[in-house]
Amino acid sequence: MTKQLLILGGGTGGVIVANRLRRMDPELAITMIEPSPVHTYQPGLLFVPFGKGTVEEFQRPLERQLHSGVKLLQTKVESVDINAHTVATTSGDTLRYDVLVVATGATLLPEETDGLLGEGWGKNAFTFYDPAGSAALAKAMDSFASGRLVVNVIDMPIKCPVAPLEFSFLAEAFFTDRHVRDQVDITYVTPLDSAFTKPVASARLGRLMEERGIKVIPSFNTGQVDESGNRLISYDGQEVHYDLLVSVPLHGGAPYVSNSPGLGDEINFIPTDEATLQSLVAPEVFVIGDAAGLSVSKAGSVAHFEGEVITKNILAFLAGKPLPARFDGHANCFIETGHRKALLIDFNTSIEPLPGHFPGPFGLPLLKESWLNHLGKLAFETMYWHALLPGISIPLIGPEMPTRGKGSLAVTEL
Ligand SMILES: Cc1cc2nc3c(=O)[nH]c(=O)nc-3n(C[C@H](O)[C@H](O)[C@H](O)COP(=O)(O)OP(=O)(O)OC[C@H]3O[C@@H](n4cnc5c(N)ncnc54)[C@H](O)[C@@H]3O)c2cc1C
């Protein structure tokens, strides 16, 4: 009997898995459940507030991103029964699966922070982490010419942990180009004890923030947003005033996970094996991307690398064989630093981002601002639509982190 593979979510991870498996096993019946008719290139949302593109320019019809033979159901998952191997949808259907791929990403939870969705939301408090917020923030940025801009990460984990840093750098360049930089104070408020999670990259990024006059307030755990007084208030009583707030809200897994007994953890992410990407809750459930409760970064590059591993393991599982592929946590990020420059970092679960070159000795410079890296960031969108999503492997840029071309450096040497 034809095996039924059900994919929940048609974002980066879901589309990659669907297209890869379609090529690898044309006999497999593949169904995807996704409510949105469009697929959004989320890294583009960083640029919209600075007038560099509209949300619509970063969106394409989802159906056109899927290889023929992948069935798309435009509806939402209501719940999963991991014992009966069924998924219920909000349209009232129940679908059976032999293998389930959870690819429903991370959900923004602004309502979980006291006061964030108060009267200032959409007036002088925004997020660029979803399409509507990013478009609304573009208007606010356009008319902001003096005062204090605060970029605040409420808590980890968040998707693309470098995006709020990139926003701060791009804001610095934006106000400089508009000749109002001396009238705008930019402050980055983070729960981490420094600018970023990885010590080597953090030291370099922290120094860059200092050079650009961006103030960093570390170890600030936002407990409340006082929107009438335009203040962030931390759990331990510290306060930060803002005129324009750019918030990265709390993240959790998709809400249906809490209606699905045994599927998720307390914040609705799915416990998953770091190496095989098989869930720890049921052998026929696999997880890709931000939905997984893993220690790796929540990033599109990670979902891309995971796609190569998870598809091999799913086919082995269906054939009753041991899972052959292992993921090392490889992540790769361009970090826009403004003024047409960017840094590139490449790392995995056990190796920090290091200086050198990627993907080999003659490649792009790592941990170093360069115009080439900025071009790489812009070119990445074309690669996303034409190689990553269609499931085409990119030579030299695979799941295993390359070590050729990399140096080593102690944090104190930076
Ligand atoms: C502003 C911003 C900038 C970023 N920049 C970068 C970058 O430069 N580099 C990088 O690598 N990553 C970046 N990312 C992160 C990257 O976009 C995500 O990590 C990536 O999209 C994760 O893929 P995913 O498939 O796990 O989740 P997503 O792509 O978010 O897809 C999840 C899908 O699940 C669907 N879904 C949710 N609930 C249900 C339900 N109940 N039923 C059915 N479907 C459902 C959603 O509609 C969505 O389509 C950025 C993200 C943001 C927000």
Task: Briefly summarize what is shown.
The protein is an alpha/beta fold and 414 residues long.
Polypeptide structure, described:
With 414 residues, the chain is α/β, with parallel strands linked by helices. The chain has three domains: 167 residues, FAD/NAD(P)-binding domain (3-Layer(bba) Sandwich), CATH 3.50.50.60; 141 residues, FAD/NAD(P)-binding domain (3-Layer(bba) Sandwich); 83 residues, no CATH class. Helix content is 22%, strand content 25%. It is built from six helices and 26 strands. The strands form nine sheets. A five-stranded parallel beta sheet has the order 5-2-1-9-21, with helices on one face. Strands 11-18-12-13-14 form a five-stranded parallel beta sheet. Strands 6-7-8 form a three-stranded antiparallel beta sheet, with no helix packed on it. Helix 1 runs parallel beside helix 5. The chain starts with a strand and ends in a 26-residue tail after the last helix. The structure holds flavin-adenine dinucleotide. Flavin-adenine dinucleotide binds next to helix 1 and helix 5.
